[in-house]
Amino acid sequence: MSRAAIRYAKAVLDLAKDNGSVEAVLNDMKSVKATIEGSKELRNALNSPVIKADDKRAVLRQVFTDGTKETLGLVDVLVDNSRANLLGGVADSFIAEYNKSNKIESATVTTAVALTPELETKVLAKVKELTGSTNVTLTNEIDESIIGGFVLRVGDTQYNASIASQLGKLKREFSNSL
Length: 178
Prior knowledge:
Blueprint: H1 3-19, H2 22-38, H3 40-47, H4 53-63, H5 69-80, H6 87-101, E1 105-111, H7 117-131, E2 136-142, E3 149-154, E4 157-162, H8 163-177
Parallel strand pairs: 1-2
Antiparallel strand pairs: 1-3, 3-4
Helix pairs in contact: 1-6, 2-6, 4-5
């Protein structure tokens, strides 16, 4: 995340707090993040120096028609300052700042298949053990190359309980003992 994106995110968060619309803006930022991550065309349009600022503003206002006044104001400021390409980063930063201010831990678990309720309970227990926090948001990513088990990332801590990792350890042990 760029420093500029973090500054814009903090400013929007402060404005949303002042206006009592933090939850609504949070929902907008989640929507902005998902939309930008899901659309290569939108990312390309925001990054393009050829597309005029007014066209970028029109596209963003059309895509995010239900946005709060804070979110639409952010779009206008970013476009006016030729920083529309930062919108996704600002959304990420806003969510991170919100989580930080509300003491919410964000964890990502990578599994070979979608999480079952049983595995989700185990993962949440591990996150609580690692962080001491009971307020956790969990994101599940699927990567079939880990074969089984899971890889858990909380902040800068990683807990690897994948079968691929265990096989790699065995392979290293065998090659070292030869």
